[in-house]
Write a structure and sequence with these properties.
The protein is of the alpha/beta class. Helix content is 33%, strand content 23%. It folds into two domains: 174 residues, Thiolase/Chalcone synthase (Peroxisomal Thiolase, Chain A, domain 1, 3-Layer(aba) Sandwich), CATH 3.40.47; 154 residues, Peroxisomal Thiolase, Chain A, domain 1 (3-Layer(aba) Sandwich), CATH 3.40.47.10. It has a five-stranded mixed sheet, with helices on both faces. A four-stranded mixed sheet has the order 8-13-12-11, with helices on both faces. A two-stranded antiparallel ribbon has the order 2-3. Helix 3 crosses helix 4 and helix 8 packs parallel to helix 9. The structure holds acetyl coenzyme *A.
């Protein structure tokens, strides 16, 4: 039986910084409200004409991760790409990575699990490596939110939260079962699908229907979020996923060297930190700079924590996320 471990990390965020004050020029909002409710100070939004998309940003992050892994694109056996904002309705972004990076014709799988996307992606890659099917898997999380947000006052409770960006990890096989991914835990509760949703375009609500209606009141193609309902479920499910991961590995909360929570809202991360009694150096947050980048948030945060020297060999690293679906989960790793 093999184990999987991360040997290369990379991230890419667009240069274009949008501050809370910038947003207040587009809609009726203000820095104080956004910071008090979410902790977000600024986010990156792709500049029109820059050429960045979820796939393009994912490829930029992937190049860095592959190089840091000491590999080349030809060493990668499989691609797993997590996003809710793919370049096309279909095909997914994974195949674009194969093309952009000029990789061999390896398989590519897209994961559609929103904020939990990277957790699911790591778990899938882990299973492929553990069974011996693949040696090196490129796992990417990327989101191009800014192109699909309602930037008027009507959409303010959602649009101030989200940012664009990408992160990537190279996972590889190890025969040392004491390091790498120790376990992953995945959950869903589909009855709450419509509490955090983009309804259209979809097969049920197709573009011609939207266009024919020509109804500016139709907001079905913008994200809808029942914020307080999502918040209440998030704090419960985050906690459950972390406890489940610790219990499965006979670990205590004191054993956590680094918790990387999905960057949904700083208040959620702070609630979890307090609930588990974790010190500041045991939890990493960067939502202040990037907003909520959904499937990219955990991998961008993991990469940044590693770049800042906050993750070292032997550390117990916990990844946890909750999001639309609802979906949630955790990954426990020994670095
Ligand atoms: N600026 C100023 N005022 C605003 C803004 C804004 N951007 N947005 C909303 N308001 C107003 C509302 O209109 C409302 O005014 P009213 O009281 O006069 O009606 C008031 O502020 C409070 O609005 P709420 O929506 O109740 O604000 P809340 O405290 O719930 O905060 C938030 C909203 C930040 C969205 C919070 O609910 C949250 O973070 N929820 C969880 C988000 C999350 O975890 N998502 C999961 C991941 S995302 C994914 O999976 C894709």
């Amino acid at each position: 039986m093999y184990n999987s471990r991360i040997i290369g990390l990379g991230k890419y965020v667009p240069d274009n910084i949008i501050t809370n004050d910038d947003l207040s020029k587009m809609m009726d909002t203000n820095d104080a409200w956004i910071q008090e409710r979410t902790g977000i100070q600024e986010r990156r939004w792709i500049k029109e004409g820059s050429g960045d998309t979820s796939a393009v940003m994912g490829a930029k992050a992937a190049r860095i991760a592959i190089e840091r892994a000491g590999l080349t694109k030809d060493d990668i056996d499989f691609i797993v790409f997590a996003t809710l904002s793919p370049d096309y309705y279909f095909p997914g972004c994974g195949v674009q990575i194969q093309d952009i990076l000029d990789m061999p014709t390896v398989g590519a799988l897209d994961i559609r699990n929103q904020c939990s996307g990277f957790i699911y992606a790591v778990s899938v890659a882990d299973q492929f490596i553990k069974t011996g099917m693949y040696n090196n898997i490129l796992v990417i999380g990327a989101e191009y939110h800014s192109g699909g947000l309602d930037k008027s006052t009507r959409g303010r409770s959602v649009s101030v939260i989200f940012g664009d960006g990408a992160g990537a990890a190279v996972m590889t096989r190890t025969e040392d079962n004491t390091i790498g991914v120790l376990s992953s835990h995945l959950h869903s509760e589909g009855k709450h699908a419509e509490e955090l949703v983009v309804e259209g375009p979809s097969i049920r609500h197709w573009v011609p229907e939207i266009l024919e209606a020509n109804n500016e009141e139709d907001t079905s193609y913008y994200p809808y979020m029942n914020g307080q309902f999502v918040f209440k479920h998030a704090v419960v499910r985050f906690s459950e996923a972390i406890v489940e991961g610790l219990t499965a590995n006979n670990l205590q909360k004191e054993d956590i060297d680094m918790l990387i929570p999905h960057q949904a809202n700083l208040r959620i991360s702070q609630f979890i930190q307090k609930k588990f009694g974790l010190r500041d150096d045991q939890v990493f947050n960067n939502i202040q700079k990037y907003g909520n980048t959904t499937a990219a948030s955990v991998i961008i945060a993991l990469t940044e924590a590693w770049e800042e020297g906050k993750i070292n060999d032997g550390d117990t690293v916990v990844l946890a996320a909750f999001g639309s679906g609802f979906t949630w989960g955790s990954v426990i790793m020994k670095w």
